[in-house]
Amino acid sequence: MLSISQCLGRPSQALAMEGKLPALDAQAPDFELEAAAQEGALAEKLQRDAFLGSWLVLYFYPRDFTSGCTLEARGFQRDLSDFKAAGAAVVGVSADGTEEHVSFCSSEGLGYTLLSDPGGVVSERYGSWSSPFSQRHTFLIDPKGILRMRWLAVSPSRHSQDVLRELKELQQS
């Protein structure tokens, strides 16, 4: 049985509920997912490599419009200008479709990208899939595409601040 400390922080490998988490200090798993488009715009697919050259906060969450997910999304929105000032993009991933994401972004005033992973393929690559939902995990990827940090035990109310604090610490080291 793994302890919480073995699953958090910087161990080279850890297990998630339904799969193996990607190793820290190694290339982050690739992804190509459809992004939520604004009304009238064509949907586009985004790949991990589109974020090379900047930090990426890639957070997985179960569902749009649920209380914990809404609280977490609002936190990232509240701190979005601080993430941008630190050279980081924020991207959310769930199994919801792009139409739900568009509605969620509009309803909550989200100014960052949400990606649709309906079959959980990418969520599974990140050890963040428990069918039929993504688990609440977050990954911090550096400008070279290296996975630098992960969060498995997430408190939606303060999570964005935790990620921002760690991002700034990593940038100073």
Automatic annotation (TrEMBL):
Pfam families: AhpC-TSA. Keywords: Antioxidant, Disulfide bond, Oxidoreductase, Peroxidase, Redox-active center. One of its GO terms (molecular function) is thioredoxin peroxidase activity. InterPro entries: AhpC/TSA, Peroxiredoxin_AhpC-typ, Peroxiredoxin_BCP/PrxQ, Thioredoxin-like_sf, Thioredoxin_domain. It comes from the Bacteria. Thiol-specific peroxidase that catalyzes the reduction of hydrogen peroxide and organic hydroperoxides to water and alcohols, respectively. Plays a role in cell protection against oxidative stress by detoxifying peroxides and as sensor of hydrogen peroxide-mediated signaling events. Belongs to the peroxiredoxin family. BCP/PrxQ subfamily. This is thioredoxin-dependent peroxiredoxin. It comes from Prochlorococcus marinus (strain MIT 9303). The lineage of its organism: Bacteria, Bacillati, Cyanobacteriota, Cyanophyceae, Synechococcales.
